[in-house]
Amino acid sequence: MNKITLTLFACSVLLSGCQQSDSNQQETSQDALEVPSEKHEALTAEKLSNKPLLQETIPVAATQSYLTILNGVVIGSMEVETEVDKNTKQNSISVDYSYSNNGRGASYKETIQLDSNGFPINWTVDGHSVFGNRIKESYTLIEDTANWTDATGAGTAKVNEPTLYIPQYGGDYQSFVLANVLLLDDDQQLPLLPAGEIKLEPMEVVEINKDEQVYSLSSFALSGANLNPSYFILDQQRHLFAYITPSFITIRKGFETHEAEFRALAEKYSAQRYEQIQSEVAHRYHTPVRIRNVKLFDPHSLSLTEAVSVVVKGDTISAIDPLTVATGDNETEIDGNGGTLVAGLYDMHGHMGDQQALLNVLAGVTSVRDMGNANDVLDNLIQKIDKGILAGPRITRYGFIEGKSSFSANGGILVESQQQAIEAVRSYSKKGFPAVKLYNSMKGEWAPAIAKEAHKLNMSVAGHVPAFSNANAMIDAGYDELTHINQVMLGWVLKPDEDTRTLFRITGMSRFTALDLASDSVQNTINKMVKNNVAIDPTMAIHEYGLTARNGEVRAGVIDYFDHMPPGVKRNYKVALLKVETEKEHKDYSEAYQKIIATVKMMKERGIQLIPGTDLGGGFTLHRELEIYQIFGMTPAEVIKLGSSDMANYLGHERLGSIEVNKLADFFLVPGDPTKDFKEIKKISMVAKGGTFYYPTEVYPKFGIKPFVEQPNVKEAAQSK
User: How far apart are CA 311 and CA 318, in angstroms?
Assistant: First the structure.
């Protein structure tokens, strides 16, 4: 539903962050919209309102105020004004919603007109997204015709049954609007515009105490539009009380002291969903498993082996046999059908949550390096993955350290002095973290002391370039790895007083067009990186998204799987991240991306270690990240090796990265040969993570995703059943 979780959490520590050409007007939505048959009676808005579905009027308080809170920190507000026409009984609602975190934020105003039964007949959203993309959206239902315009273009549809529209953007108040219609439907499920359907599910009654008064509240889930449900709370009058996620919440003002317990409630609901899915799709065979007739990708020779069988016992690869060895009576057999087995991939720039964990595994991403998170949330997630309660990748944690300022990212440990930063390093060391990551609001002058302490404790140091500093200073300070290529390149184009804690660290990339990569400033940095063996985590996929995505066009990175996604996801895949309204903006951002490609290619040619990470949740995006690396002159086989074996070596994971006897059983199966065509790696039919087997074709429908390939044939041993 609402894209806040992405923009505030996965993107709160994104590029240093992250969301969403005018297209021609269209007669129908670009998404797959079922046009009603002429045999059905066309219903006017009045007829729709009189259906049994809509039979109650819900009175709404004239003014409601809410606070938006991220990990316990107030970052915004929502003000709602409602007027009721005494004659028509229609409600007119005005919503003023804004928030700011990590130097950027969204702001928009909504106007919603409801008929006398609460059915939306007019809806507008006007403002800007987290990264500045212009929001100007409208929807009208006049008699039996719905018309809408959003960032993807315009659409229209004849409506012959109660049908809801969901704004592409919009505040958390939409939960209330949609729920109060769905609550009056028999099965609480309705068709959705522009496409799909939406379903309301009651969760539980929740009671809280405030000022010696007990409040009885009801929690709900809305699902169908996107990969995962959204969760919210209504009060006894069915008014919105809170919109909830594990890290982010919008809650009625005056009740903010309860926000932590409601975040915990959202975490519980999400965990329950994924625990249930895990119980249904995780195949733990109680016999050895023989994957028969597969070719193995060998990272040493960059080629495929002859067809063999791979035997897994417990969580370990116990044997690799020629095909002449028969399957034992006590073995479960998976037919590889001549496909390719590849060691599990690494997303080296993640911010992991339970909603991403399983989807990463299904995409063959069995290891993730978490580059900054709410520490308690990640603790809980790792424990559940380790116990097998949730499916998820192996997580390597970097300790996030951020300076305290009005632009701070709210995660990890916030510090106000060099000594506090050093203590944060020690704290992470005691917890077993192998490295720390420094962020934008850190003072650059603290970096040498921080790096010295980290290296003393055998920890490495990665991070952004702090505001008002540059990559050269961080390399001299002792950085082992620089995070995001834009963080390096901005030092070549910014003026000393320009603040990269703001959105300018994204929009400022337009200046890359004038960069001379042969200049002394550029070459000095490259030389320092080579001399000091400093790696770069360029996050190419997110830069491609930010600089080349345009409203109304399917962005480049998702083309290969666009048609497999649910309607709401497809809709968001056709929206720009930044505001690109003029030909100059389009040209500057497009050329800036090409300059980024040229810079990373030069780094690769100079022998600088490239670290493939997405900062976009991994999964399919990690496939795209690696695919882009072919532009730097890498073969498909070299790219696969980089994403698996090389990253296992980089992190010191001796039992991962290749398919060999006594290594952990982390690998995936594809029907084709990805060493000839890298796109074959996107067609995964089976994944093993630590000896637990998953079949994406079996799982994807639970997320509204259309499967990519057929499920392999599995013949279970008698004692496994």
Answer: 6
Q: What is the pLDDT of residues 79-92, one digit of tens each?
A: 999 988 878 778 89
Residues 6+ apart with CB under 8 A from 165: 120, 123, 139, 141, 146, 148, 192, 193, 194
438 contacts 415 by C-beta, under 8 angstroms: no
DSSP state of 564: G
**N-terminal to C-terminal alpha carbon distance within the chain:** 39
- Rounded to whole angstroms, what are the CA distances from 243 to 135, 176, 205? 21, 9, 15
Position with higher pLDDT, 676 vs 374? 676
| Extended strands (E) in 160-288 | 164-165, 189-193, 197-210, 213-223, 230-234, 240-244, 248-252
DSSP tag of 283 = B
Q: Are 679 and 560 in contact (CB under 8 A)?
A: yes
Q: Residue with structure tokens 């023989």? A: 290
Q: Say which DSSP state 705 is in.
A: P
Cβ neighbours for 670, distance < 8 A, ≥ 6 positions apart: 339, 340, 342, 680, 681, 683, 684, 685, 709
Q: How far apart are CA 466 and CA 473, in angstroms?
A: 10
- In 299-393 the beta strands, taken as DSSP E runs, fall at 303-304, 308-313, 316-322, 332-343, 345-350, 365-370
Helix (H, G, I), strand (E, B) or coil at 580: coil
CB atoms near residue 142 (< 10 Å): 11
Mean pLDDT of 22-40: 29
Q: How far is CA 706 from CA 127, 562, 697, 703, 710, in A?
A: 34, 10, 8, 9, 11
Pairing of strands 145-150, 134-142: antiparallel
pLDDT for 37 beyond 50: no
CA distance 403 to 412: 11
Contact 686, 709 (CB under 8 A): no
Over residues 324-334, mean pLDDT: 96
Q: Is the preceding peptide bond at 194 cis, omega within 30 degrees of 0?
A: yes
CA atoms of 110 and 97, how far apart (whole Å): 8
Q: Give the H or E element holding residue 224.
A: none
Distance CA 594, CA 485 (A): 12
Amino acid at 373: N
DSSP states along 181-208:
HHTTSSSSEEEEESSSEEEEEEEEEEEE
Diameter of the chain by CA atoms? 84
How confident is residue 61, by pLDDT bands cut at 50, 70 and 90? low
Bridge-based pairing of strands 714-715 and 289-298 is unpaired
Q: Where are the domains of the chain?
A: 43-279, 342-703
8 A C-beta contact, residue 433 and residue 402: no
Residue 490 near residue 506, CB atoms below 8 Å: no
Nearest to 293 by CA among 675, 655, 715: 715
Judge: domain 342-703, CATH 1.20.1070.10: no
Residue 22: pLDDT over 80: no
Average pLDDT over residues 608-624: 96
3-state helix/strand/coil string of 508-539: HHHHHHHCCCCCHHHHHHHHHHHHCCCEEECC
Q: What is the pLDDT of residues 187-227, one digit of tens each?
A: 999 999 999 999 999 999 999 999 889 999 999 999 988 88
Most confident option among 103-107, 216-220, 344-348: 344-348
d(CA 550, CA 590) in angstroms, rounded, equals 10
**Distances in whole angstroms, Cα of residue 175 to Cα of each of 73, 185, 401:** 22, 16, 35
Q: What three-state secondary structure class fits 80?
A: strand
User: What is the arithmetic mean of pLDDT over 449-468?
Assistant: 97
615 φψ region: left (φ > 0), alpha (ψ -120 to 50), beta (else): left
